[in-house]
Input
Amino acid sequence: MNGQHILILDFGGQYNQLIARRVRECNVYCEVKPYRKVTLDDIRADAPDGIIFTGGPNSVYAEGAPSVPRELFEMGIPVLGICYGSQLMAHVLGGEVSTCITSEYGKTETEYDKECPLFTSPELPKKAVSWMSHTDYISRMPEGFKKAAQTWNCPVAAMYDESRRLYAVQFHPEVNHTEQGQSMIYNFVRGVCGCSGDWTMENYAVTAIRDIREKVGSGKVLLALSGGVDSSVLAALLSKAVGRQLTCIFVDHGFMRKNEGDEVEEAFADWDINFIRVNAKEQFMSRLKGVTEPEQKRKIIGEEFIRVFEAEAKKLGRVDFFAQGTIYPDVIESGSGDAAVIKSHHNVGGLPDHVDFKEILEPLRMLFKDETRRLGTELGLSNTLVWRQPFPGPGLAVRIMGELTDEKLETLRDADKIFRDEIAAAGLDKSINQYFAVLTNNRSVGVMGDFRTYDYTLALRAVETTDFMTAEFSRIPYEVLEVCSRRIVNEVKNVNRVVYDITTKPPATIEWE
Ligand code: XMP
Output
């Protein structure tokens, strides 16, 4: 590929995405590829400025363990091996790897040789904490290597051969617990590999807009806009690239949060695109009448969404390109750059089968979420859209237990708005990754003034998570919860009790349905 970049060879490590994000944080572009799919010829053609080997679960001596040919180290390209990657480097180049008497796991005091180009940061003390997770270790270095770090249990926690620009670290510099880990990655990609740091969202926008124009020519582009971060940023990018050749269809199923449908429409009012909002609430509500089972709700909403979108898209005739907001984590998880995998996100899953189009356009395919947000800001999108928290495709429909009614929707919208406002007022909106209200189907007895009430219990849910696969409930101060509870029971109809969900995921999920 053109331009400076780092190739990350994936050996199955759990932190592969994190390494890529750290490299990008140095303003250097990188791609993660499974080691199996990359040959020496590919590397020659691709000409990366450096290669990073990830960790992995294997032992280098295991049968069929991932490996690379020795010639890879003779191509003159700098290599940084991390964990399994460091052992592999030692093994292939004639060193020795052995099994520790006790595995080393977690924060470990590490002594560094400050002469090693990876460890020159003035903020890195000679002894500092690194994050270890290994059972094997390098027991003898290959010829030409110098030791650069050690721990009580690991005699070669880092090694390097400066003349061949080969570096290996047993610990994980990409994990936050490694003190100055980011500076080590910076020193490798910006120092050893000589990358200048030209990967910025400003540059990306310019290149992406040029590429989209070239590819689309005078063709027509169709986008299903949900108002989520990815599809909103994509709409902004495509609008800058092809203007009115783009049509965005926003299907408003009526389960958005308070004022959200209007906000999405307003956000795009001044953009040079064809924006179609389909208000399909009645259609969705009538299909959901009497439905209480969560999966059935989701299925009906998914199907109805496709039906509404399809009917609208058909009015446009043949479109040339169907744009999707696929981002890099989706690509990596689906096997690193295999042929376009259509997101199984239920909102758009299956759409391309039904809509007549020539090609899929995925301009965000190589961006991480934080980069997508930065690109959005670069393109002039509002903070409300760029920092929008994740919201399930079926919206509030899966946050109302049991059958949906207009009244329940209004109750939930009002309560959710109060909760969000109070979280923002307490300055917690950036640290809590997702927070929302759920209307349970449970009613209980209460007293208001001199009257007995028999009303709904509303649950508040707030979680902290990095990947949404696991989550901790957020430790919101009682004072904030107290204000939320008081305001909700006083200001919202049909609620007389507020509870806070203190379950982690697993075993619970983040959403209630
Ligand atoms: P769970 O409830 O499975 O949710 O712990 C994990 C994350 O996914 C979001 N979510 C969805 N996102 N379409 C989406 O785009 C959906 O149907 C959907 N369902 C759940 C959820 O909000 C959380 O962030």
Summary: The CA atoms of residues 115 and 261 lie 58 Å apart. Residues 336-349 have pLDDT under 50 and may be disordered. The chain has three domains: 5-192, 201-386, 399-500.
